[in-house]
Amino acid sequence: MELIYIIIIPAVLAGLSLIPAHKKFASIVTILGTLVIFILSLNIAFRAADGMEVVAIKDWISCDSLGALVLLLVAFIGFTAAMISIGYIEKNVEEKNHKKIRHYYAQYNLFLLSMLTVPIISQVALVWIAVELTTLMSVFLVSFKNTPEALEASWKYIVLTCMGAAFALLGIFILCWGISISGNEKFTWAGLIVASTNIPPVLLKTAFVFVLIGFGAKVGLVPLHTWLPDAHSQAPSPVCALLSGIETTTVLYVILRLLPVLRIHPSIGAEMWLIVFGLISVGVAAFLIIQVKDYKRLFAFSTIEHMGIIMVAAGLGDYASHYGATLQIISHAITKSFCFFASGIALLFVGRQDIASVRGLIRTSPIAAIALIIGGLAIAGAPPFAIFLSEIMIIKSGLVNGQYIVTGFLAFFIIIAFCGILFPINRMVFGKPTEYSGKTNLSVTNIFVLIFAALPVILLGFYLPRPLHELLCHAAASLGR
Amino acid sequence: MQDYNVVFSVLTKINALAGGLFILTAFGIIAMRQVLASLNMFIFQSILLAASAFVLGYQHSSIHLFVVVGITIVIKTILIPYLLRRIISKEVYARREISQVLNIPTSLLIAVALVIFAYFISSPLSNVTNDIFVKLNLPIGLAGLFLGGYVVIVRREAVPQVIGILSMENGAFFTGISIAPDLPLIAELTAAFDVLIIALVMGILTRRIHERVGTTEVGKLTSLREE
């Protein structure tokens, strides 16, 4: 039943946000609503951690361990990003333009709704629609600032992802064809796994390639990644946190869902596709990170890198690497959203987005500087943060599997990206401070949210709660067969 | 039995005609310089999609496909053209697109290559079945998908890019109606609705770009890139 509430609440919130009441009404309603969603999804995650599948409507709305993992992440980041919006959006619109703020929150809730539905719908055709809606609901959030750059970014975003979605649609149709050839299974994720032995391998392979290319455009796989740094740097920072932290993850979840279906026919070589695409993405992103001049783009390229790492981990193909992949999913989502909160705070303070214009932030705004340092270290994969653990886990399982070349390249690219992220951050934080004109002071809510969002980033490196560990174990097992 | 065979052969011929014209309209969208002409080509293509869905619906006696016929006609030939004309100013439609990335003869040659590629990809797939409709619709739909994608890449104006994306969806559906006629009805309905939202969102975005930047040549927007 909670699953149905999770769908209904954001829809109601979107309606409530449009009510022209007090100027803080929309933001407070959104924060309370997303808090409720977060608590509900915690509850679902606890039940999924026991290995149960939470079912609301059989064959339509249900959620297993992998879905619960993504659901929990969407709910958590949806909640924190709603809190950081309160001090951020008001400062980014003209005075007295309350209508624009209300529209922001309405779209925010619709975007959240579309992302929440992806992991809990079990009908594959409807999942495609939910993924497509995540694009359509977020386009105007990307172009929120209404500058020529923001409009350009959102145009590239919608054109490339809609092209990808059309390719993925054909892949979904082919899967449906396979199901109808093989017998009377329902067109759900579970039905696909049952039917996969009877589906001709050529259909599965073609469908997988189409879905991989189509949804890969949305994940940011390399030949199709060009929209990602633009959109993820032009949107307002809370939206960047949603886009970079979880929108990519929810779409990647759909690709990973096909993995157990394909494993029955080793001749398809789905793992090889994932490893090759993933490795290319990591490599290109690592070299693009080095020459980035804008600190939000820096984190956007790092998203491409991490999506590649997760795909390589999923492709390595044994339980240990799948566990590493799920841990990487959770640590990346939490850390990356924190990074965008931190860079959003820095942007509020400094007012400029290019790295060269920021120096010695630690003297002028210690809070933004510390947040940037923590975020940078955590996302680059420095110990003792969680990404370090998951990357070590993935590399170790690559070595155990005898994939020395893949692992070698992966480690090499990760190190390049590590340097590429930390040098600019170092230059922004330390050094001789520059003075900024028109700087804004940070509000109490900003600082509170930063601390709140930093807690899991720091804690996950030291301590993985037992239910979360079990959830990850089940999710990793469901990726295999 | 005799009657059945006659009906069947007539149906396959109608479907083949619709398929052939479908590819032709996809070429038309590439070749038309005027924005309005491209839009008309898209409308014609959607009617052909509906025609093929009607034939297949009759053949499989499937209610789903008749619903697809209905929503395709209503949404793709009436609502979407209406929306696009309503949202975007007249001046955009009257414009002739001077600068494409490639000139039109080259474009058409590449388009032919794409169609051959589509047949090449779909031949192992259509060996799976003996259904004559699948053997016809699968490569044509795939070609429609590729040609639509090609339109998006070579066109610089915003509206032709929107039309390219919509014709990609048409191509995917042209295949889909033959290979997956028993998709859940709710999925068909929401997918059609989804296409409508794509047109709406992209239309509004085009208008905003027109207001803010003063042009709809989105291909010229290149301020965001790595140095």
Give a nutshell description of this structure.
The complex is a heterodimer of chains A (481) and B (227). Chain A has 20 helices and two strands. Chain A has helices at 2-17, 25-49, 65-92, 98-120, 124-142, 148-182, 189-195, 201-219, 227-234, 237-257, 259-262, 270-290, 295-316, 319-350, 361-364, 366-380, 386-400, 404-429, 444-462, 466-479, and strands at residues 54-57, 61-63.
Largest sheet of chain B: none
What's the rounded overall pLDDT mean of chain A? Answer: 90
Work out the helix count of chain A.
Answer: 20
Silhouette of chain A: globular
What is the ordering of alpha helices and beta strands of chain B?
HHHHHHHH
Report the principal-axis shape of chain B. globular
Q: Tally the helices of chain B: what do you get?
A: 8
The percentage helix of chain A is: over 70%
Write the element-wise H/E pattern of chain A from the N-terminal end onward.
HHEEHHHHHHHHHHHHHHHHHH
Strand content of chain B: under 5%
Helical coverage of chain B, percent range: over 70%
Uncertain residue ranges of chain A: none
First and last CA, distance of chain B = 70 Å
| Strand percentage of chain A | under 5%
Tell me, rounded to a whole number, the average pLDDT of chain B.
87
Q: What's the assembly state of these chains? A: heterodimer
